[in-house]
Write a structure and sequence with these properties.
alpha+beta; TIM Barrel; Immunoglobulin-like; 3 domains; ten-stranded antiparallel sheet; nine-stranded parallel sheet; 14 helices; 39 strands; globular
């Protein structure tokens, strides 16, 4: 494993436990070509895949066919304006206005460990051995250098990639596009898998064939997005959950991005992921550098399950940080759906007193505690406690909650500003807006210009003062509208195209300050639910609220898509009241708990107004959480059945890394007449071992091979939306 350069053949080979990635330097001009990415191979003699012995030959052999060569050669990091008419990974405009760029290999470095990316979230080496390759390429005419970075870890099949551009010339250049990764491959009738949706309907899976031309996803909203998730997988038609080839890429970034696949005239595929190019233009002065966000690339020959395990393990080991990265999180209750804006100290304490009796461990105070916040149309930006609502102030409330044996958390939306606020009246120019135009309002609020240092500092001073004033142990960081009207009074005309990215850098700086200054605080990100659920935000917060739709049945598809690439411990999931506020559905309390267990687990309801029967169920659910959370947080996730596909029931399974136990969750979506029991084939068990099955009525013991190949019998249930969990514990080897 690791990275090797074969000098004689000018070939780089990157090995992970199960995959190999190869590229080579071609011709005296130093073209860097992609050779191979896929299942691990033993040798490196694969230069023939570059097809340089076929016409059109490399330019040094046949200069008259330069364009034909460039338009066909599998470039590792393609540029534009020189004859490769496919999509460029890097587009540059010179000071004279010309759009061209060509890169030639110069040198490389291979070293142990991994560097961070200044100002951006990025994976880190973690506890295992990590090796990094940096390839230096140059455009001599522009005086521009590009470093392509690749990092591999001995415990993961993920390759972390990004690019960094340095202006070593004498004139300013403009970056109009920069990809984090590019990959040229022969098309094997690839199909694309993406996660799409909208507010309250995030991460629904969609699979479709690649056709000729361009197909892709992205965001121009300033957030990674509810609509398209910053992830794409390419797979062969026969690929299933359990078998077949899958290539996956996801961005470690929370702003505008694009992931595109282009099928060329020759039937090849160029696949790229990086910053979205429509609203991006970065002026790079002589001596300055610019780094793209990181992309996480993986390959699986074990179907979608293999990709999922790679991403889950990598995120747990190389993205998540802090006190709670691998620890059980407290069971919380959030007051939002219980009270909305209508609360005071006594109402919150009444919820806390009842919640403490039921085994809930933290009270989170949501929107409405600050400034003159009586509704959603005022006071964002005025981050000081409203002591008319909170008699005695925040410290008194927190102390009283702590006396109950509970932790305390608080909600912020620090990136926003209300027109009706003290901050806006003092600094109307701090809102993102095109000068001379009234910006578009959403949810009664504007977006603060976090590209400006004074704005970032002001926001931080307010947030820090609140957090220092009381024993706050959790922060919910919300963000409730997209960016538009992109204009900043803090940027000159030639740099207005930098605003969206600079805004994201400001967000990251604020969150880095928070986790550094208050390392004991559990940070949970949120953006109207899943508007910024991505690996970039997970770098700062070990969990993210994945959707504002808390209905358990709606959550099946949402959490299925989210769990495709993110570990269950990162998925914010709560039990809410019924009829559900989003869809009006009544779902059994037990089922709501089973679905929420596949996440961070908490409650969004008024425990002072529920029945005694529901209170008993909460205590049972709290016990289940403590019993199973280590398994759910650390185990391997298997998708067994999808209600989105069969329209009848949903089923998933978590298997411990040591194979000693497993948890199976089954949710019946729709009941029907005359149906037989369901034979559900499990996964990931040891064939020769015997397992005690808890939850199937009478306790039974079955062998692993029977459970996997014959199946676990689950009786059909009367009524819609029923749920059940089964706990499997290995007892002994089968005779």
């Amino acid at each position: 494993m690791g990275i090797v350069y074969y000098e004689q053949d000018r070939i780089f080979k990157l090995d992970t436990p199960r995959t190999s990635y190869m590229m080579g330097v071609v011709d005296k001009e130093g073209f860097l070509g992609h050779i191979y990415y896929g299942k691990k191979v033993s040798g490196h003699e694969l230069a023939y895949l570059l097809r340089t012995e076929e016409p059109p030959f490399v330019p040094s052999r046949n200069e008259r066919d330069r364009l034909s060569f460039l338009d066909k050669f599998p470039m590792e990091y393609p540029t534009h304006g020189i004859g490769d008419f496919r999509e460029a990974a890097l587009r540059v405009r010179s000071a004279a206005g010309h759009k061209f760029c060509t890169l030639s290999y110069v040198s490389h470095k291979i070293f142990s460990g991994k560097k961070g990316i200044e100002g951006l979230p990025a994976s880190f080496a973690g506890e295992g051995k990590c090796t990094t390759l940096e390839i230096l390429c140059r455009d001599a005419h522009l005086g521009m250098e590009v470093v392509l970075s690749y990092s591999v870890s001995e415990d993961s099949d993920v390759i972390a990639r990004h690019a960094e551009v340095a202006n070593q010339g004498r004139e300013r250049i403009f970056l109009e596009k920069i990809a984090s990764m590019s990959l040229d491959m022969d098309n094997r009738c690839f199909e694309a898998l993406t996660l799409h949706g909208s507010w309250a309907r995030e991460c629904h899976r969609e699979r479709r064939p690649l056709g000729r031309g361009f197909q892709g996803i992205g965001s121009r909203r300033g957030i990674s997005g509810h609509q398209d998730h910053p992830f794409m997988a390419l797979m062969t038609p026969e690929t299933s959950q359990e078998s077949g080839e899958v290539y996956g890429v996801q961005m470690v970034y929370s702003g505008n991005y694009e992931i595109r696949a282009e099928v060329s005239q020759f039937g090849t595929v160029r696949w790229q992921a990086g910053l979205e190019g429509e609203d991006f233009c970065w002026a790079l002065e002589p001596g300055e550098r610019f780094a793209s966000p990181e992309a996480l690339l993986t390959y699986s020959d074990r179907g979608l399950d293999g990709m999922t395990w790679s991403y889950h393990d990598f995120i747990r080991g190389h993205i998540l940080r802090g006190k709670y990265k691998d620890r059980k999180r407290p069971i919380l209750i959030n007051n939002w759906e219980a009270t909305y804006f209508d609360f005071d100290t006594e109402k919150l304490l009444s919820i806390a007193r009842e919640a403490a009796k039921l085994g809930i461990e933290m009270l989170v105070m949501d929107d409405g505690w600050f400034g003159n916040r009586r509704d959603e149309f005022r006071s964002l930006g005025d981050w000081y406690v409203n002591e008319e609502k909170l008699k005695g102030g925040l410290s008194y409330l927190v102390e009283e909650v702590n006396k109950l044996g509970m932790k305390f958390g608080i909600w912020f939306e620090p990136e926003m500003i209300s027109p009706d606020s003290d901050l806006y009246r003092a600094h109307p120019d701090w809102a993102i807006a095109v000068p001379g135009r009234t910006p578009s309002m959403a949810r009664g609020q504007y977006v603060l210009d976090l590209s400006r240092r004074e704005v970032v500092d002001c926001v931080w001073e307010q947030v820090e003062a609140v957090l220092r004033s009381a024993n706050v142990e959790y922060v919910k960081w919300d963000m409730n509208r997209p960016l538009c009207d992109l204009g900043s009074l803090g940027l000159p005309p030639e740099r207005q195209g930098e605003l969206a990215h600079r805004y994201m850098l400001g967000v990251y700086e604020l969150q880095e300050r928070l986790v550094t200054r208050f390392p004991h605080i559990l940070l949970e990100n949120c953006a109207s639910g899943g508007g910024r659920f991505d690996a970039g935000m997970l770098y700062y917060s070990p969990q993210i609220w994945c959707s504002d739709d808390t209905d358990a049945i709606e959550r099946l598809a949402i959490q299925e898509g989210t769990a495709l690439i993110y570990p269950l411990s990162a998925i914010g999931a709560h039990v809410s009241n019924c009829p559900n506020h989003a869809v009006g559905r009544n779902t059994p309390f037990e089922t709501r708990g089973y679905v929420a267990l596949a996440g961070t687990f908490g409650y969004e309801l008024d425990v002072t107004r529920i029945s005694e029967e529901d209170k008993e169920i909460i205590q049972e659910q709290a016990a289940l959480y403590h019993k199973y959370n280590d398994l759910i947080r650390e185990g391997d996730y298997y998708r067994i059945a999808s209600a989105a596909e069969n329209h009848l029931y949903d089923c998933w399974q978590v298997v411990g890394k040591d194979g000693k136990e497993s948890l199976v969750t089954w949710i019946q979506v729709l009941c029907g007449p005359g149906r037989q029991s369901h034979m559900v084939r499990l996964k990931g068990l040891e064939e020769s071992a015997r397992y005690r099955v808890e939850g199937a009525g009478e306790e039974v013991e079955l062998s692993g091979d029977i459970l996997m190949y014959a199946g676990l019998r689950i009786p059909d249930r009367r009524g819609d939306f029923a749920g059940q969990v089964f706990h499997l514990v290995r007892v002994e080897e089968a005779e």
